[in-house]
Amino acid sequence: MINISTESLINQKILPYDIYDVNKDKLFSAGEILTPGKIMSLKSHETLYVKQNDNSIPQKHSENTAAQASEKPAPKLQGKVNKTSKIAPQSQLSLKVDYSKAVELLKQGEITAARKSFLNIRDKIFEETQTAQKSVHYCSELKLLGEHHECHALNTAIFSAFLASRLEYSESAALEVILSALLHDIGKIKIPQTLFKAHTYSRDEEALYQKHPIYGYNIIKYKMKFPESVAKAALEHHETVDGAGWPYGISSTMISELSQIVAVSSCFDNLTSPQSGGASFKDALKSLLTKGSKTFSAKPLYAFVHMLNYSDSVASGDL
Which of 132, 193, 266, 298 is close enough to 86 for a disulfide, judged by CB 3.0 to 4.6 Å? Predict the structure, then answer.
């Protein structure tokens, strides 16, 4: 292995080498398109490596390879789509498929592959939401439809991306918000899935359920090696400003703004999901305001409520 600088890569359109981290785990493969999200990921590593016998792929050849691949028709995915969404139907479906695969990789202990998959999903969400910014008027035009376990993290990430934009976050900060939202419930993989089918919990089941933020924090920080700020969003997304939340009952400024962004977005998606009664998007916004500053910090709460048109009277069941 030989060391390579990030600066020598960031002007490339397509990666000319397989890129490895300090643990010799592959981060990206030769021929991958170098997106802004991938650049941020590369910059997060102090040291990068390529194989000593890995010859540079000529740029022209790489572009031809990418062009040839793009000429092949992508397999048509099947599933439920939001026909009013400003995110293309095939993009909606591919996000759900990619997320399910990433979670499965994590469950199987394929940490490096799972980490890479989640970063790729983050990049896709950033790109999709950037494209949709000027054409979206209602929150209902963003929501993915389907089973809660396959859509909730994605919807939370999409809403969080728009909220980060409303708050005028930089691109790097927005990418961190999206990743945090995408992983905020990842601790649930450590909880028996039968628990999520129950309508009511026993005291012991409730106590077990309330451990998922702690499980998520440990997975994100110690297994996936993502930043502390991303792990804290998983840990704190059920905490409330008045201290009545869980798992630790912290309050006010002890809860990070990033965690608050994820909390507001997650709550809104839950309110508009069929499993919670499927409130209309307008009524869900009213519910957020009713919860108010006792639950959420004022800055992300009011930015969320005002980021798109308030008169969104449709419900998920109408989409």
Answer: 132
**Domain ranges within the chain, ordered by starting residue:** 2-55, 89-318
pLDDT tens digit string along 11-68? 777 778 788 888 788 888 887 777 777 887 787 777 888 886 655 433 434 444 444 4
Q: Of all residues in the chain, what percent are helix, strand and coil, respectively (each to 5)? A: 55, 5, 40
Q: Which tokens hold the place of 206?
A: 């409730």
If you count them, how many residues does the chain have? 319
3-state class (DSSP) for residue 53: coil
CATH number of this structure's domain 89-318, picked from the four choices 3.30.990.10, 1.10.540.10, 1.10.3210.10, 1.20.1050.10: 1.10.3210.10
Please work out, in degrees rounded to the nearest 5, the angle formed at the alpha carbon of residue 18 by the alpha carbons of 17 and 21: 120
Phi, psi of 186 (to 5 degrees): -65, -25
Tens of pLDDT along 109-130?
A: 999 999 999 999 999 999 999 9
Beta pairing partners, 48: 4
- CA–CA dist 101, 95 (Å, integer): 10
